[in-house]
Design goal:
The structure is a homodimer of 374-residue chains. With 374 residues, chain A is an alpha/beta fold. Chain A has two domains: 127 residues, Lyase, Ornithine Decarboxylase, Chain A, domain 1, CATH 2.40.37; 157 residues, Alanine racemase (TIM Barrel). In chain A, 31% of the residues lie in helices and 24% in strands. In chain A, strands 1, 10, 11, 12, 13, 14, 15, 16 and 17 form a nine-stranded mixed sheet that branches. An eight-stranded parallel sheet of chain A has the order 2-9-8-7-6-5-4-3, covered by helices on one side. In chain A, strand 5, helix 5 and strand 6 form a beta-alpha-beta unit. In chain A, helix 3 runs parallel beside helix 4 and helix 4 crosses helix 5. The mean pLDDT of chain A is 97. At the A-B interface, helix 5 and strand 10 of A face helix 5 and strand 10 of B.
Chain lengths: 374, 374
């Protein structure tokens, strides 16, 4: 089957591109001397995770317990659940921890540490934990400059019910950068803040086996990971319009796109209506700090060639408006025309689909089903 | 089971509120003398659609062919698929049309009209069609002031393979309004543009049985629907933060919310981290034209009381940051605290869940499963 025959909207994965992205990141991590524990939340599929872990130690990173359970059932045995654990999820996490080689949980608050230790004791397991550190993103994590943060690490390390693995951070603020220079500064901070905190913890007598960092933009520019043991990028498997704008990749490196059809044609306003809306592309605003007029994705031909100057001007639930910078000539882009949209944020767009059509050179060679829910 | 025992994030539907919303809109449509054909895309469930159609003729509106098929299988026999039909979907639509009393399709281009007629002839069915009219939203629809639009209606009406039902519009630009006054102006235009076009078509000899309009904001302010036969609001079943800002409803009328738990606590920046992110609330920017600082939803207590001045400041895939306007006092909002978030756009948030927990007074009395995909 050719991709042109798919019902639309359809999620497309270019397998050649995905494999190249995976192989490049694996080489990059090896060259930088860090273990690659890819995040799998972007695609949420066993197939893509297997490609990301080819030749590696096999560890992965997930963003929900549902993902942890799905990937464990699919044979992945070393999993980091990289969101601070809700106490109400601890019992299920402890049950899963028993069935895999290692399930790492995240903690950044004494109450969560105590709840994890209590659950581990109650369930008769030893729970593996990381201390989440804030390297400037200000989403989650302890402030590495505070004395309480050292005390919390010591508390985790001292618990007989917990296996303290080390520290973990994510420089999500790289996504707010405007220039490659800014991304480089964030990447340096991600590494330095964490490595320095590891040194401080060790000096305080707290053993730190792992120093885990990583995001796709910061890894794209990193040239030295001294003090880091592990990296956890994820988006690089697919990439997206935001990564193109940040300079993490070229448009030709984006492995995920949404195939849509033209269902309305309004040359008087230089617009086409397509059958992919916010439930196919997500409402992610995209890299507005780089390009305030970026719209909701990059419109391309069905073959993936960008339509220069075109924008996804607006989205509603099932409608997308694609606007041309030039008059739309008579006879061009008729009703039924196929277009590909590279979404702003492939993690959010991919999660809207029950299935991806997997392509090699335009031929559908497979269908991958992501895990859903929590 | 109490809602407090649900795993989070969880989609909650307050059944009492939903029933009240449905009954009020039914009374409103009856008082205005228009038939109510509720849109079901907001919830996508048979259960809510049955509540919306209590005492009515039973017709519904859908936004995907998957919804049309799901609701037909659930006993709904009069369905309007209110997105311009993609020619590639016509064969499936024709098959479905055979199995229900009426499936209305939307057309706004001569090529689509011809494709629909050709498919109907080929499949040996008569396809029911509406002409989509643009009343100022500029998303889809013909310009009612152009001669070609009358010609297209005549072409639909003249086809032996099509059953031309009339004209249909949607004043989606009501969602961009800043004041009740502006919503009233859009509502008047929605009615007047469409009613006037119906008069023009009839004068040109084109029979127009149905004049179908409607959105939740415009219906909330409508006081006269002269010339209109049918209304198609949908969001009113659930409502959301955008409708509250537009004045379509009070916060107490919102029937849908997302239950989350506090998984991080950062009093130094007056923030809590919750386990509902963009994959639980959607990235819909909300009514920024009314309140530029609206954030990504309205934070409430687990019982649904709004937390005055609090904002959902940012979302990433599985993380939400909720910010307090005041210092977060020691001992308040501990890790594990339940909160409810009223999302900006309930249609997009609800579509992210495989199941809604249905509540009466905090007690879980059911689970509803929305249809997904296209």
């Amino acid at each position: 089957m050719r991709s042109e025959q798919l019902p639309t909207p359809a999620a497309l994965v270019d397998l050649d591109v995905l494999e190249r992205n995976a192989s490049r990141m694996a080489q990059r991590a090896a060259r930088l001397g860090a273990r690659l524990r890819p995040h799998v939340k972007t695609h949420k599929t066993l197939e893509a995770a297997r490609i990301q872990t080819r030749g590696s130690f096999g560890g992965i990173t997930v963003s929900t317990l549902a993902e942890a359970e799905f990937f464990a059932a699919g044979g992945f045995a070393d999993i980091t659940y990289a969101v601070p654990i809700a106490p109400a999820r601890l019992a299920a996490a402890a049950d899963l921890a028993r069935r895999v080689e290692r399930l790492n949980l995240l903690v950044d608050h004494p109450d969560a540490a105590d709840a994890a230790a209590a659950c581990a004791r109650h369930r008769g397991v030893r729970l593996s934990v990381f201390l989440k550190v804030d390297c400037g993103y200000h989403r989650a994590g302890v402030d590495p400059d505070r004395e309480e943060s050292v005390a919390l690490a010591a508390r985790l390390a001292a618990s007989p019910h917990l296996d303290f693995r080390g520290i973990l951070t994510h420089a999500g603020h790289a996504y707010r950068c405007r220039t490659a220079e800014e991304v480089r500064a964030v990447a340096a901070a991600e590494r330095d803040v964490t490595a320095k905190f590891a040194v401080r913890l060790r000096a305080a007598g707290v053993p730190v086996a792992e120093v885990s960092i990583g995001s796709t933009p910061t890894l794209a520019v990193a040239d030295d990971l001294a003090g880091v043991t592990e990296v956890r990028p994820g988006n690089y498997a697919f990439f997206d319009a935001t990564q193109v704008a940040l300079g993490s990749c070229a448009l030709g490196d984006v492995a995920f796109s949404v195939l849509v059809r033209v269902i309305g044609r309004y040359p008087e306003r230089r617009e086409l209506l397509v059958d992919g809306g916010a439930l196919a592309l997500s409402s992610d605003p995209g890299p507005v700090q780089v390009d305030p007029r970026c719209g909701f994705g990059i419109p391309c031909t069905a073959a993936g060639e960008p339509l220069a100057g075109w924008r996804v001007a607006s989205l509603s639930q099932e409608h997308g408006i694609v606007r041309s910078p030039r008059p739309i000539a008579a006879g061009t882009f008729p009703i039924g025309t196929l277009l590909r949209i590279v979404p702003n944020h492939s993690c959010l767009a991919a999660a809207l689909f029950d299935r991806y059509a997997v392509l090699r050179g335009g031929e559908v060679v497979g269908a991958w089903c992501p895990v859903r829910g929590w």
